[in-house]
Amino acid sequence: MTSPDTRGRRRSEALRPASLLAYLVLVVGAVLTLAPFLLSFLTALKTPRQFASQSPLAWPDPVTGENFAELFGGGGFISPVVVTAQVVVVVVVGQLVFSIMAAYAFAWLRFPGRDGLFWLFLATLMVPQVVTVVPLYTMFSAVGLSNTFWALVLPFVLGSPYAVFLLREYFRGIPADLLDAARIDGAGTWTILWRVVVPLARPIVATLGIITVVTHWNTFLWPLIITTGPTWQTVTVATAALQSQYDSNWTLVMAATTVAIAPLLVVFAVFQRHIVSSISLTGFR
C-alpha cells in the first residue's frame, strides 16, 4: 500500500513539467512586455551614430545624455510635461469628486427615475470615444475654447460612467445600518458621504485615481484635435510631433518616450499595492 508521502511525491513530480511550462510562458510574456521599454531606454542613451552602427539591443558605449539635454533644452519638452501634469491633476480631482457624489446619489438617495437614469448613464460606456470627438470639437470651437486648457479638461472633469458604476456598486456594499446610525447621531447627507462612506471606500477610490492618472497621461486623440501649436501640447502630442520633425533622429524620439513613461513607473512604484488590489476590485483578470 502506497504511503501518503509517496503519493504526494508522485503528484508533485507529475505536476513539475506543467509548472515548468507555465513559468516558461510567463518568462516569455515578461520578455515580450519589457523588451520595448528596454529598447526605448537603451536607444535614448545612444548617439545617432551609435544607433546607426550598433545592434538595437546593444548597450550604449559610451552612455550619453545629450538626447535628454537637447530634449529639455532646445526641444521644448518641459512645457508638455507641465501641461500634462496639470491636466491629470485637475481631471483626477474632478472625476473623483463628481463621481463620488453621483455614485452616492445612485446608491443611497431616493428620487424618481433613479435606476432608469443610472442605466441610461451607464449605457454611454458602449459609445466609442471617437464618435463624440467631432461634436465636442464643434461645441468648443463655437464657444471659443479650442486650444485652451479648459478644452483639455472639461470633457472629462465631471466624472465618468465607469467610475460612477464602480463606486456605486462599492457603496451599495456598505451596510445600511451604519448609515442609519450616522443619521440617528445627527449627521446629514454630506457628512455621511465624506466622513463615513468615502473613508470606507478608500481602496476603490485609490484604484480609480490610479486608473484615471494612467488614462489621461496617455490620452492622445483629443489633445491632438483640440490644440494647435506648442502652448497646450501634451506629452503624447509632443512626442508624436518629434517623430514628424526628426524622422531620422530616433534617439531623441526614444528619449521623449522614456520621459513620458517615467512618471507612470513612479506611480506604479509608489502605489503598487493599490494596483495589485485593483485587480480584484475592478474584476480584471
What CATH architecture label of the largest domain applies? Orthogonal Bundle
* CATH classification, class level of the largest domain: Mainly Alpha
Number of domains: 2
Cα-atom radius of gyration: 25 Å
CATH fold-type name of the largest domain? MetI-like fold
Total number of beta strands = 0
Largest sheet: none
Share of helix, binned: over 70%
Shape: globular
Q: Structural class from helices and strands?
A: mainly alpha
The CATH homologous superfamily of the largest domain is named: MetI-like
Number of helices: 15
Task: Report the average pLDDT across residues.
Answer: 85
Written as H for each helix and E for each strand, in order along the chain, the element string is: HHHHHHHHHHHHHHH
- Roughly how many Å apart are the termini? 43 Å
What would your notes on this structure say?
It is found in: Cell membrane. It comes from Desertihabitans brevis. It holds the Pfam family BPD_transp_1. By secondary structure, this protein is mostly helical. The chain folds into two domains: 4-68, no CATH class; 77-282, MetI-like (MetI-like fold), CATH 1.10.3720. Helix content is 76%, strand content 0%. It is built from 15 helices and no strands. The protein has helices at 4-44, 48-53, 66-72, 78-108, 114-123, 129-142, 149-157, 161-172, 176-184, 189-200, 202-217, 221-226, 235-245, 250-270, 272-282. α4 crosses α8 and α4 runs antiparallel to α11. The longest helix is centred in the first third of the chain and has 41 residues, at 4-44. It is globular and about 75 Å long. It starts with a helix and ends with a helix.
